[in-house]
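Task: complex structure prediction.
Instruction: return C-alpha cells for all chains below.
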Amino acid sequence: MGWTDYLDAHQSRFIDELCDFIRIPSVSAKPEHMADVRTAGQWVVDRLTAAGIENARMYDTDGHPVVCADWLHAGADKPTILIYGHFDVQPAEPFDLWTSPPFEPTIRGDRLYGRGATDDKGAMMIPILAAEALLAETGQLPVNVRFFFEGQEEIGSPDLPPWIEANPELLKADMIFSADGGQWDTETPQMVLALKGLTSLEVKVKGARADLHSGMHGGGVANPGMALAHLLASMKSADGRITVEGFYDDVIDLTEEDRAAIARVPWDEAAYLAQTGAPATHGEPGYTTRENLWGRPTLEVNGITCGWQGAGTKTVLPAEASAKITCRLVANQNPEKIFDLIAAHVEAHCPPGVTAEVSKNPGRADPFLVPAGHNATAIAGQVLEEVYGKTPYKTRAGGSIPVMSTLLDQLGLHAVMFAFGHDDENQHAPDEFFRLPTFRLGQTAYGRLMERLAG
Amino acid sequence: MGWTDYLDAHQSRFIDELCDFIRIPSVSAKPEHMADVRTAGQWVVDRLTAAGIENARMYDTDGHPVVCADWLHAGADKPTILIYGHFDVQPAEPFDLWTSPPFEPTIRGDRLYGRGATDDKGAMMIPILAAEALLAETGQLPVNVRFFFEGQEEIGSPDLPPWIEANPELLKADMIFSADGGQWDTETPQMVLALKGLTSLEVKVKGARADLHSGMHGGGVANPGMALAHLLASMKSADGRITVEGFYDDVIDLTEEDRAAIARVPWDEAAYLAQTGAPATHGEPGYTTRENLWGRPTLEVNGITCGWQGAGTKTVLPAEASAKITCRLVANQNPEKIFDLIAAHVEAHCPPGVTAEVSKNPGRADPFLVPAGHNATAIAGQVLEEVYGKTPYKTRAGGSIPVMSTLLDQLGLHAVMFAFGHDDENQHAPDEFFRLPTFRLGQTAYGRLMERLAG
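Output:
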C-alpha cells in the first residue's frame, strides 16, 4: 500500500499514542513537574526510534531537556530539513473549568481534549508519523530530516540559546519547518510571515515590612496594591495605547501595503467576540483589531498577586503587590531594550510611599519576519494549496516561538510554520483540544512536503 | 488573701489557660474553621463557669455563635455592666513569616506569641479572671456583670445585629465596657473616644469568557488586570486623596480643637516608620499622619487576584481580575451610602472592553464617637489613672468594632474601651503577641473598675 494508506491504517494507534503522550503532565512552568517534562522527552525519543528515525536522544540543557534525532540517508543531492516542535505544555489551572481532566485525554465527537492536545503534542507528532509511514512503505525518506524537539517552549526557551550555540552539528540544515503554529481554519491554509517577539517581567511594589491592620495603619502608610494599580495604569492608557516612554520608538509601522494584505484576510468581529466571550474588542487606537493582533506590540498583565485572596474579608493593608507582565514585540523592537524602558518607567513613575522593582522572568524572543520570496515558504505554500485546494492566506501571528529567532541567529535560517492547529482550540486555556481530522490531514501534508522538497 | 493576691497566685495557671485558648484556630473568615470557632465558644462557656459566673451559654446566630453569661447578685442599687470581647481570630497566613507556629503559643521573654494572643483572646480573658478573683476572695462582685463574647468580630459581625435585636434581655445593662481595644503604651493609658466605621466590598472586572493566550489575543480584547488597575487608580490619587465622587461629603472634618487635642498626644514619625518598615508615611494630603490614622476616612485595597500567580511565566490574558477593598469611615459617613458611591463610581469609570461589578463583603460598622462628658468614660479614666499613675491620653482609633455601633443602636449605650493590648503587638499580622505583664495589670484594672463603679 502507499504511505497515505499506511497513515489511514494506523490512525487509531496514532491517536492512542497521542493520548499516552498527553497523559504525561509535562508542565515546564512548574518546578514540581520537572521530572514529567523529562518523561515526555523520553517518550519522544522512544517514539522517534519506533518510527525508524535514527540517533534519537535526549540532551540536557541548563533547564528542561531537548530531543534530537535524524534520518540522513537521502543523499547529498537532497536538502536537509530540520523539523521543530515542543513536548512541554502550559499549566492546566484552573482545573475546575475543564470539562474532562486536562491530563486524562478524552475524545468527544471528532475532537481530542487534553492539555497539549494541539499545543504542541498533537502537532509535533504529525511529522514523526509522516516519516514513519514513508519509511515503512518506501524504505526511505525523500529528503534528509533532522528532528529538534524542546521541553521549555512554554516558558520562553530560556536555556536554548546556549545549547543551540554549542550544538550546531545536531541542527545543521538547509531549511527549518516548525510543527508549532497552525492553519487558518479547517478549510483554509495560511503562510505565517511574522511572529511577535517576547519579553517577560514582574513588577513588585513593597510598602510596610509585613501585612498591617488596615484600620490601625490605613492613612498612615501607602498601600502597595493601590500603588501597583497606579503603576500599571501609567503603562497603558485605558483606551489601549502603551504609555511606557519610548516603547514604540523602534516599531516598524505597518505600511499601506501591509494593511491592505491584512485586510484581504476575512475577519468577523462578531465571531471573534463570540469566540472569546469578551464584551468588545479592545486594542491600540488607530488600528483595526486584526492589525493590533498581528502587527502591533502589546503589553499584557498575565497575573496580579496582592494581600488577602481567600474567602470573605481580611482587613489587611498588604505589605506588597506584584504583577507579571509580558510584552509581545514587533520588528524591530528588542526584548532587552523594552525591558529596560519598562524598568526606567517604573522607577520614574513609582508612587510615593512605596518602593518598586522590576525583574526579568524567563522567556525572551526577538520578533520574527520572513523575508519576501523565501524559497521554503513558497514550496510549503504549494503543498498547502494542494492539500487544502485553496491558496493560503498570508498572515502574521501574535504569538512568539522564541527558538525561531534563536535558530535564525545561530543558523541563519528563517523557519517556515508548517503546523496544523487552529486558533480556537483553547491553547493555554481550559478545554484545550485538537481536531482529529486535522491530525490526519497534517500527516499527509508533511509527507508531501518532504516529497516536494526532494524534487 | 486579697483578690489581687489571688491574681498573683494563679497567674501561671491563667497563662496556661490562655495558651489552651490560643491553640483553638478559631479563624472566623475561613469556612473550614467554622467548627473551631464553636470550640472556642464552648471553651469560653466552660471558663466563665469555672470562674463562678452564672448562666454561661453559647447561642446560635445565622453564622458564628455568641456566648453570654452573668452574675447579677450585687443588688438593685448597683449598676449592671456589660463586658464585651471576641473569641474569633484573624487568618494566620502567611504562615512562613511566623517565628513560631501561630496556633502553638510560645513564650519568649515576657511576651506570649500566637494568633489571637492580644486580639482578642488574651484581652477578653482579663475581665473573666478579675471576676474569678473577686468571687473567690470576696464571695461576690461589686456590681452586676453581664458578659457578651462573640465569634465573628474579625469578619465584621455580620450576624450580630439581628441577634442583638432579638435578645435584649441578655444584654440589658447601664454601661458597656469593651475588652477589645488597647492602651497607649506600657506606661500610658488612654481613653478611646472614637472608632472608625467600616464598609467592605469587592470589585470584579470581567473580559473574555476564559483565560486566553496573551500572544493570540493581546491587542484584540481588553485585559481585566489592566482595567482593574485603571479602576483602582481612579478611586484614589497617587498622593492619597480618595477620588470616589461624593466620598467625603458627609465627613465631619476635624475642628481646630480636635487637631490640637490630637497634637498633644506624642507622635514619633521615625519610630512609626521603624515599627511598620514602610519607606515613608503616606496619607490624605493636608492632614498629619496621626490625623489621618485617627480622624480621616480611608479606602484600602486588602487584596487583588488576577490570572497566573504561580512560579515563572504563564502567557495568559486573564479572563477576570478582582480586588477586595475596605473603607474605614468617620462620623457622619454611612457604610451603605459609601458602598453605593463606590458602586456608582465603578459603573461611571469602568474602562472600555470589560464589565465591572461591585459586591458587598461581610462586615459593616457605623463610625462611633463618644459624647463629651460621658460618665462611664470618666470613671474608667480615673481607674486607669490610678493603675498607671498617669492621666490617660484622649485618643481615637483607626479600627472598627462593628458591634459597638450595633449596641449603641439597640441599647442606646456608648461603649467604653477598657482593654489592655498595644498597637505594636502585630494584630492581624504574623508574630502576634501579648505582653504578660499587661495581661496581669489588666486584671487588677478590671477588678478596680468594678469596685469603683459600685460606689
